[in-house]
Amino acid sequence: MYKSLIRPLLFKFDPEEVHHFTFSLLKNFGFLAKLLLPKPITDKRLEREVFGLKFKNPVGLAAGFDKDAKLFNELSDLGFGFIEIGTLTPKPQPGNEKKRLFRLKEDSAIINRMGFNNGGVDEAIKRLKKNKNVLIGGNIGKNKVTPNEEAVNDYKICFEKLFPYVDYFVVNVSSPNTPNLRELQEKKPLTELLSTLQNLNLEKPKQKPILLKIAPDLTDEQLLDIIDIVKDTQIAGVIATNTTLSRENLTSENKSEMGGLSGKPLTKRSTEVIRFLSEKSGKAFPIIGVGGIHSAQDALEKLEAGASLVQLYTGFIYEGPELINEINKAILKQKI
Question: How far apart are CA 99 and CA 107, in angstroms?
């Protein structure tokens, strides 16, 4: 029903406006989704324990969809095993100028240059206090106006404020839409940033997992650096991958828009990165696989490449909520 009826209707309108419209519908009429959609699969065999947390199933929602933690309870009801909110910054910021979100229908992809638009960490916390037992990841970043040499302070602020309200953290230094942010992926600044957060973590009575989200555009040498950094800082794992700057083999009208590309064109590369990190590290740390998952087979390939969990974003938009059940059914069938 989603792909034949709902998606064609939604895709007639501006993608950012549609996003807010669907949020409003889910917030006010979420009970209808429960009636119209297949019941989410619940099966003990789907449960996963990863970096000390228990996930009811391995299919999560990636950051960027529920930036401000407005809909995590309703989205969890669709069947997601966990919800990642953000990217959140210490201060509210509007993000980049509109238009900043583009569908590439022929490529089953999206280009975004949102720019960490969010209402700030304090506003999100007000809503997180209403969590109905949803496992939450907190994706954190820096404000656009904060220079890179002061970026650590922004991450520290978000970490400290969110600590009581999220189950794990994701350090986002890989978005292409905040000027110079990806410079923080270089070995020295990244080691400093992660070490600082890990030291704060170790001061807590009970630590929470810290993960690093990386770009798919890193070279093999840079990926080897990532493995060393994870080992040196003792963070819990990696999310592979964020959006790409590559525009290879695209055919859609909007293919030349600036921003990060997500969706089917990223499927192969994100899986390659997962496999490289898993094999070269000797499976030393868990990986959450994200990027171009539009089918159950896409998810299985990422799990087989070395991912412990997977996340959806663009595939969720193109394929609809039923994709969650399809993946979980395939996992049960494959006994992964």
Answer: 20
| Nearest Cα to Cα of residue 162 among 138, 179, 133 | 138
Which residues line the annotated binding site for substrate? Answer: 67, 112-116, 172, 177, 242-243
**Domain boundaries, given as residue ranges, for the chain:** 2-334
Q: Which residues participate in the annotated binding site?
A: 63-67, 87, 112-116, 139, 172, 177, 213, 241-243, 263, 292, 313-314
What is the reported pTM? 0.97
Tokens 């193109």 identify what position? 318
The torsion angles phi and psi of 12, rounded to 5 degrees, stand at: -80, -10
Render pLDDT for 228-286 as a digit per residue (tens, 0 to 9): 999 999 999 999 999 999 999 999 999 999 999 999 999 999 999 999 999 999 999 99
For 22-35, the pLDDT digits (tens) are 999 888 887 777 77
Is the CB of residue 202 less than 8 Å from the CB of residue 231?
A: no
List residues forming the annotated binding site for FMN: 63-67, 87, 139, 172, 213, 241, 263, 292, 313-314
Residue 151: both structure tokens together = 């970026």
Topology adopted by domain 2-334: TIM Barrel (3.20.20)
Report the catalytic residues. Answer: 175
